[in-house]
Amino acid sequence: MTVSSQRESTSRCSCPDSMLDGVEQLILERGDIEAYQCSREDEGIAMAMGAFLVGKRPVALMEGSGIGMSALILARGIVQKTPTMLIIGHNSTLGERYDYHGATRLVAEPVLRALSIPYHVLYDPAHIRNVVIEAQATVEGGSACPSASSCRATLFARSERVDEPNRRASIHRRPAQRCCNDYQSWFGELPDR
Amino acid sequence: MIISPGLANYPIAEAKDEPLTLYNMDMPYTTPMALGIALGWPERKVISIEGDGSLLAGPGVLSTVARYQPKNLLMFVFDNGAYLTTGSGKAPTATVFGTDIEQLGRAAGLTNTRTVHDLDAATKAVNAAFIEPGPWLIVAKVDKQDRPAERGPHTLPMYVYEAGLVFHRAALQERSVKNNNATNLG
């Protein structure tokens, strides 16, 4: 999502992610943030950086595998001094239940470290708001480089035991709404640039 | 204007350097960054200058452009059939073997597309793109005679590390002036 400096509009770029799905659906339903879904995560990061260049507050949402494809555009953002905020579902954290996400876990966090991109791994939903606000402040505060908030697998999908076949929808949807209903206020305390 | 790596950078910079220009964008990201700019600043015409090699490195963006239909975006592709600025410049791109970039765009959902083979047709297509709402995809089939390595060293008017700051500052300034004018008129 991208929030403009003039507050006349908001938007964000994303690729689908199971954990962040609830947040994305909320954004699409409410329509108070410009939302763009893209074909690849690195493409979305480039779009978000383009939005920054013309005065928006850029945020790219994705799953951790997308970071593996995005090293080059992130590096370009650092060299070119064009920042964006990243919100990443899953990472090199605990709680991954699918073995085919093994490559994702291997690649995501090391890319952030290799590029010296400041990031924070969230474990507690109570911290979402402050971490996002601080990450945005880092983006705008002169670091001029991408900044990331990585979300542990169970952050938005807290371990609620529900039965199949509704497990997937329930697990991702309800906690996400609970955590993120006030996502607009994540940015509310930031001063206009 | 966002320009992909390659020979297009130098004649454009020599013709006129504008602060709202990013040179030598990394290969797959020319049009994605231009798309972000176009969506964020719909009042401004935004141009991505692609090569066949750079666009084919990330053709998925054509579907994203078609999905959001930014009226102010023009994608102009120089298709010379080669990775001309890399190594010997002899490595061919897929367009030599039949890949048709305009048809890729049409398959992605773009409707304002042209493939042009001479300067006159290119001029007409660009003029149309500035009059009729986009998004536009213009593919210019060009030969390989302009290879920069054969024309001596080239420099660009700006380092990459200052380009983002200059662009950002110029965009905010222009938008601020326009907003102020609109406020005053209102």
Properties at a glance:
heterodimer, A: 193 residues, alpha/beta, 7 strands, 44% helix, disordered C terminus, B: 186 residues, five-stranded parallel β-sheet, 5 strands
Structural features, described:
The complex is a heterodimer of chains A (193) and B (186). Chain A is an alpha/beta fold. Helix content of chain A is 44%, strand content 16%. Chain A is built from 8 helices and 7 strands; from the N terminus they run ββαβαβααβαβαβαα. In chain A, strands 1, 2, 3, 4, 5, 6 and 7 form a 7-stranded mixed beta sheet that branches. The two termini of chain A are 17 Å apart. The relative contact order of chain A is 0.18. With 186 residues, chain B is of the alpha/beta class. Helix content of chain B is 42%, strand content 14%. Chain B contains 7 helices and 5 strands, in the order βααβααβαβαβα. Chain B has a 5-stranded parallel beta sheet, sandwiched between helices. In chain B, α2 runs parallel beside α4 and α4 packs across α5. Chain B starts with a strand and ends with a helix. The mean pLDDT of chain B is 91.
